Automatic annotation (TrEMBL):
Pfam family for this entry, one: NAD_binding_8
Gene3D superfamilies: D-Amino Acid Oxidase, subunit A, domain 2, FAD/NAD(P)-binding domain
Protein name: NAD(P)/FAD-dependent oxidoreductase
InterPro entries for this protein: FAD/NAD-bd_sf (IPR036188)
Origin species: Clostridium estertheticum
Length: 371
């Protein structure tokens, strides 16, 4: 069976590994000259957001034989609002490296792939369709799906990040919600090591935000992060991403084309996590191609998760800094830690995002009516 995979990122490579395990050798096309040839950043994967898996690294290893090594386990997440700092404690998830780094997830996946990767590819999707029985679109954005009329973009974001030097605890990432500085957006710090971390801001490109000066916002956020962490962070590298799309396909598969990773709509709009769904869509599309299970059926819960996450985003956006302070003030309590323990427990079937969606939806409707 002739299968083309367009894009050697995390979803494309995961698809390739799964196809190979089922006796199919795909042809992989990558437009860059090597896997992960882009800026280095740190990303997180939080168990609380990933259903059906609770503890996703052992989950994908045990179930799909995809093996990944994170930077560290996250056992404490610091959440900063305008005037408060709270923590969530427990087995929250993992952090990992991406991009041009020997331990990035894409580099780790490349080592597990046997098929040839054709680098510097200039092939268009239409050409691959003519020459292959199945085409897996894994290009890392919704562009192709949009052109095919199969993508609803809910928002785009502006992202700016930097590698910073300082003193960090690798199991303790930080996130900031401060709408005075980052309207309807957030910032985060994920350590690469005890001496180096990734500091990033992301905010939606809504009309009011487009008028803002990115460098000015960054300056203010950087000062805020230095103040919150009580240290001077030295910037050694930086990157920017404009119009980062958050949206989802109408269909996971059209004829013999499979939409995976961000082409599917892997990014959860709530907090921008997309790696887990990228890996799952990679695996599931391969199952579909091999005729083991229907890709449409497997992808159904992922669509639902996207929709819950969109409700979560609207909920977060509707809060004021004062309401955020109130939420964070109440985080440091044993009930929350116990809830996290229950939700993140490997044997738990509690889906906090799904459970809280009806309440958040009610709140969002009330806020809309009020405005
Ligand atoms: C700054 C930032 C921070 C993030 N943080 C998190 C986080 O903390 N947690 C999380 O879960 N997710 C996070 N995400 C989202 C996550 O990175 C993505 O959801 C995930 O990488 C998508 O995987 P993918 O396989 O779709 O795309 P990618 O892994 O990006 O791979 C796409 C590949 O396709 C190639 N390509 C593109 N066009 C073509 C073409 N025409 N022909 C051939 N090849 C092509 C690209 O070069 C690339 O190699 C973040 C994203 C960004 C930008």
């Amino acid at each position: 069976m002739e299968v083309a995979i367009m894009g050697a990122g995390i979803s494309g490579l995961t698809c390739a590994i799964t196809l190979e395990k089922n006796g199919i050798t795909p042809t992989i096309f990558e437009k860059r000259s090597s896997v992960g040839d882009r800026f280095v950043n740190a990303e997180g994967m939080f168990s609380i957001l990933n259903r059906p898996a609770r503890d996703w690294i052992p989950y994908i290893s045990e179930n799909y034989n995809i093996n990944l090594k994170p930077i560290d386990d996250v056992d404490k997440l610091f959440i900063h609002s305008k005037n408060e700092i709270g923590t969530i404690n427990g087995k929250i998830g993992y952090t990992n490296v991406r991009g041009r780094h020997e331990n990035s997830y894409e580099s780790q996946l490349e080592k597990q792939v046997k098929s040839k990767i054709n680098f510097n590819s200039t092939y268009e999707y239409s050409e691959l369709c003519k020459n292959f029985e199945h085409v897996v679109l894994a290009t890392g954005d919704g562009d192709y799906a949009s052109h095919l009329g199969n993508y609803n973009c809910n928002l785009t974001c502006t992202i700016k990040g930097a590698t910073v030097q300082g003193n960090f605890v690798t199991s303790n990432p930080h996130v900031w919600f401060n709408y005075e500085i980052l309207p309807k957006g957030y910032g985060w710090l994920i350590p690469f090591s005890e001496k180096e971390a990734n500091l990033v801001i992301a905010y939606p490109d809504y009309p009011d935000n487009i008028r803002l000066d990115l460098n000015d916002i960054w300056e203010k956020f950087n000062n805020l992060a230095c103040k919150s962490l009580d240290q001077n962070l030295k910037i050694t590298d930086n990157f920017e991403v404009t119009r980062y799309m958050m949206g989802v396909c109408n269909k996971a598969k059209i004829d013999n084309t499979y939409f995976v990773g961000n082409c599917f709509g892997a990014i959860s709009p709530g907090l921008g996590f997309g790696q887990y769904t990228s890996i799952l869509t990679g695996v599931y599309s391969a199952f579909g191609i091999c005729g083991l299970e229907s890709y449409d059926k497997l992808a159904k819960p992922l669509f639902e998760n996207y929709n819950h996450s969109l409700v979560f985003r609207r909920f977060m956006e509707s809060l004021t800094d004062e309401q955020m302070d109130f939420q964070i003030r109440n985080l440091d309590n044993k009930i929350i830690d116990n809830l996290v323990d229950i939700a993140c427990n490997r044997n738990s079937s509690v889906d906090l995002l799904k459970l809280s969606t009806p309440m958040m939806r009610l709140w969002n409707n009330y806020k809309e009516l009020k405005n």
